[in-house]
Amino acid sequence: MSDSIQIVPRRSEERGHADHGWLKTFHTFSFAMYQQSGHDHYGCLRVINEDRVAAHNGFGTHSHREFEIFSYVVEGELEHKDSMGNTEILSRGHVQLTSAGTGISHSEKAHGTKPVHFLQIWSIPSTPRLTPNYFTRFFSDEEKTDKWVRVVAPVSAEGVKKDLRDGKGSDGNGDGPAPVQSPLTLYASIVGEGKKVTQEMTGTKGYFHVIMTSGYNEDKAQGGTVKISGSGGEVMLREGDGAYLQVKPGSEFVVENVGDRKAEILLFDLA
After folding, report:
1. pLDDT at 87
2. Binding site membership: which residues?
3. Which of 109, 181, 98, 97 is nearest to 139 (CA)?
């Protein structure tokens, strides 16, 4: 990677975090009781919460407006119910997107006898007062191994199904990325030891995150280690760490796994 990508690390221990017993959570951006100047949002990206919810617990029915809300399930099963009539059990590999628009209510709970680990991500839509909608996609570990997979993309992007259903319910496990109403593309990958993945960036900003697959640690990142490079030199990131990216469009973003175990990673390309 050349000088065309500048990197500002966001270390895991710098994030907001809380242990409520039933919920162990990390906040990349200001959220709930955690408020941190300079970390309110990044482009259209407003929330990245890495949550672990205990079995038989979860977020009761509550309402949202004017956000694109998507869940990336890492482990366990997530039970989703909403005011549009959608009820679904989501497992590892599922990406679920709720376009809240003019307003929806939903609940998110751990299904079954095991906890669920998932990332809840919010973005700001380009157009206000949209009709609420819901989509589910599934991406296997095999699809993501040692390559990037586009799991969320703008409705205007090439290859994105535009079959919005005007709030009439889920389109099921459709093909391709979930259609988001924000200038945001989300890529996911599982990178093996000694492997590299490369992605050409199209926006002027990006955000990179290493998922905490090895467990919860409120003090510091642990687990897998990856290396990214830019005009500020090489940066090592461990599980839970992230990085703000300032990008010259067309630049190649390269991630190398330099640790002793596989690393599951997310890359946001932001217009």
Report:
1. 96
2. 62, 64, 106, 108
3. 97
Q: Which residues of the chain have pLDDT under 50?
A: 1, 164-173
pLDDT at 221: 86
Q: Quick: pLDDT tens for 80-132.
A: 999 999 999 999 999 999 999 999 999 999 999 999 999 999 999 999 999 99
Binding-site residues for Fe cation: 62, 64, 106, 108
Q: Which domains does the chain have, with CATH numbers?
A: 5-270 (2.60.120.10)
DSSP for the chain, written as a single string: --TTEEEEEE-GGGSEEEE-SSEEEEESS-BTTB--TT-S-BTTEEEEEEEEE-TT-EEEEEEE-S-EEEEEEEES-EEEEETTS-EEEE-TTEEEEEE-TT-EEEEEEE-TTS-EEEEEEEE--SSSSPPPEEEEEE--HHHHBTS-EEEEEETTSTT------TTS----B-SS-EEESSSEEEEEEEEPTT-EEEEE--SSEEEEEE--TT---SSS-EEEEEEEEETTEEEEEEET-EEEEEE-TTPEEEEEE-SSS-EEEEEEEE-
pLDDT at 162: 57
pTM over 0.85: yes
